[in-house]
Amino acid sequence: MLVGVFLAIIAFVGILLLTQNPPRADTPAGPKTTGNVVVATVDIPLSTRIKADQVTIKELPLTAISVGAFQDPSQVIGQIARETVGSGAQITLATVGASQGGQITNIQCPVTQRCIAVQVDQLTGVGTVIKTGDYVDMIIGLAIGIFTFNPVDSSVTVVAGLNETSVKVVLQGMQVMGTLLPPVAATPQASPGTGGTTTPGTALTDAQQIVVLSVTAQQAEVIRFAQISGTAPLGAVSLVLRSTDDFIDPITNQPLVPVDVTTTGVILKTLVTSYGVLPPELVETVTPLAAPSREP
To answer: What is residue 81's DSSP assignment?
Structure first.
């Protein structure tokens, strides 16, 4: 009986302690092993804008989450897909071109197309900010010399004093399949008045960029000719950035086939006759002859 009474007293005291100090609800339940990521619900083609009905949130083990994966759909909706995304694939920084590793690991050239590389700089390549999935036009600048041919001795003579520059938009609506821009380490700079450091933004440098374009066989010949016959020192090839909405329907995400714009090309005569540029004039100077000397 004494043992029973003793056990009853212990049980009463335990219940009293539990009611006065209940277990805390925020007690850690152990390390988290899963996380939410944004995944594609359908195939997302290159160059299309990601829509809300194309992505969803999925919980995955932490070990299965890709580096740079997004956790909220609002972070990717409206962004341009810089790579082809398969249904069920995770949406990462690389998907929207937010990270560039400075190397091309794979090129998926469209069927029947050819992929050719073009080297540009900040002046000829839109500041070297062209990304995979963009669309560009190409302008070439050539120095077209004027020659005369003598049928008597078959000699060729270059006509001097003429402006030889000729500029023309030759190719339109080429899709960018990849870019190569060596990463430049940001150099911390002192922030005025704070003593801290800031990371500088885009700077004018001598950076070169390789842009891989999807073209037809005929277009590849035009590009190669321009690369070989370029006008120094500015170079022959310049790329002009286009809107992806000119080539991808923003509602259906289906490809569009825009009509090429007809241009005249530009030489010096074009600027003079169409834009009112004053033509150069020949200025003649007359040097008086020295008076003849007279001997006494």
So the answer is: P
Backbone angles phi, psi at 75, to 5 degrees: -80, -15
**How far is the C-alpha of 106 from the C-alpha of 122, rounded, in Å?**
24
Closest by Cα among 109, 142, 135 to 216: 109
CB atoms within 10 A of CB 239: 22
Q: If DSSP codes are grouped into helix, strand and coil, which group holds residue 134?
A: coil
Q: What is the pLDDT of residues 36-80, one digit of tens each?
A: 999 999 999 888 899 999 999 999 998 899 988 999 999 999 888
Pairing of the two strands 114-121 and 208-215: antiparallel
Q: What is the pTM of this model?
A: 0.70
What tokens does 96 get?
């929207």
Q: Residue 104: what residue type? A: I
Percent of the chain with pLDDT over 90: 28
DSSP state of 55: E
Give the ranges where the chain is alpha helix by DSSP (H): 2-20, 217-228, 268-275
